[in-house]
Design the sequence.
């Protein structure tokens, strides 16, 4: 991993009044570019091949310039060119997946957030250790597939948008469907309603929901629309589908906004607080947006089955704000909240506190 001192030396040579917010043209880039522009920053869209034409349809979210690469790995060798443009990188799920978590940690460019979180987030065993040591309730996990005796979700490592995930009921099911070349984890399938909580942790803000250092915000909640899991049972019962060799898949195709019972908000903030405080202890703290992916059971118990320690695509629902972010500041998107944090840090001359 690139050393923080090296990144800060690069940042020291930047024209701080001319910083450009840069990210890969995918995932949540529209709101990142829109939010950056609203906070007074130039924007750079990193793309593979020709600049995507669809940005022309969204002029407020079209980057000021495109930075074209032959493939995403080329970003590593062209880091100096981006640094010359005062580029400050915003990571998102597609960016990290396309470049690879290990390569992203080697990227010689100032990056918003603490990139040390990637080793904890991308390894499912490490992320579970983080969450459980923070006191978070999680679905049961088993190591030996032969022990499967109830519905279990099998997940491959990395941010794949649900691709390849599947549910099994026994070892025979597992053997039929597993790709032995992929690293995986086996987790209890918890019945309940899925809620994806969009948090923002600021280590530099002092007013709000206070932690040992900084403050915590809740800016939105969504639920993912998954294909074909959300529609498959219209054509038959689980037994009939299995007999026909048809199984649910969990590829994320979109998102829906949600509001949760207000009585659960104290617990939601407590969970976010626990996760942030443990991150400070383990690796110096994650910075900025993160998402706790939860199931709420019929007994109103919240179980966290995953963490995404960056901006998630579900926040795209709220480019003009959510019912929660509107109570922080009207029309506040996660993309704009990131840009605002960078602007605050720059104006306070403490950019190194939110950059790695």
Sequence:
């Amino acid at each position: 991993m690139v050393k923080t001192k090296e990144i800060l030396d690069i940042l020291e040579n930047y024209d701080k009044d001319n910083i450009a917010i840069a990210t890969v043209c995918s995932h949540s880039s529209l709101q990142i570019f829109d939010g950056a522009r609203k906070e007074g920053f130039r924007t750079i869209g990193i793309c593979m091949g020709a600049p995507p034409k669809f940005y022309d349809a969204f002029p407020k979210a079209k980057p000021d310039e495109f930075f074209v690469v032959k493939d995403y790995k080329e970003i590593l060798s062209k880091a100096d060119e981006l640094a010359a443009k005062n580029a400050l990188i915003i990571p998102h799920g597609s960016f990290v997946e396309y470049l690879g978590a290990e390569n992203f940690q080697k990227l010689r460019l100032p990056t918003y957030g603490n990139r040390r979180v990637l080793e904890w987030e991308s390894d499912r065993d490490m992320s579970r250790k983080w969450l459980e040591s923070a006191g978070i309730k999680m679905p049961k996990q088993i190591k030996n597939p032969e022990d499967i005796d109830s519905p279990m979700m099998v997940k491959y490592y990395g941010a794949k948008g649900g691709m390849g995930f599947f549910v099994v009921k026994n070892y025979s099911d597992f053997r039929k469907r597993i790709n032995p070349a992929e690293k995986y984890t086996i987790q209890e399938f918890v019945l309940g309603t899925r809620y994806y909580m969009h948090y923002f942790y600021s280590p530099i803000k002092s007013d709000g929901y206070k932690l040992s250092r900084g403050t915590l915000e809740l800016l939105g909640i969504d639920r993912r629309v998954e294909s074909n899991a959300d529609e498959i049972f219209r054509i038959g019962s689980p037994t009939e589908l299995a007999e026909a060799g048809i199984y649910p898949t969990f590829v994320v195709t979109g998102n829906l906004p949600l509001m949760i019972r207000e009585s659960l908000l104290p617990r939601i903030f407590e969970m976010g607080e626990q996760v942030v405080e443990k991150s400070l202890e383990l690796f110096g703290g994650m910075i900025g947006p993160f998402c706790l992916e939860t199931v709420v059971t019929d007994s109103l118990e919240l179980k966290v089955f995953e963490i995404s320690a960056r901006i998630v695509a579900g926040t795209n629902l709220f480019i003009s704000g959510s019912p929660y972010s509107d109570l922080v500041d009207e029309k506040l998107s996660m993309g704009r909240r990131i840009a605002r944090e960078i602007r605050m840090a720059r104006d306070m001359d403490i950019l190194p506190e939110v950059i790695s």
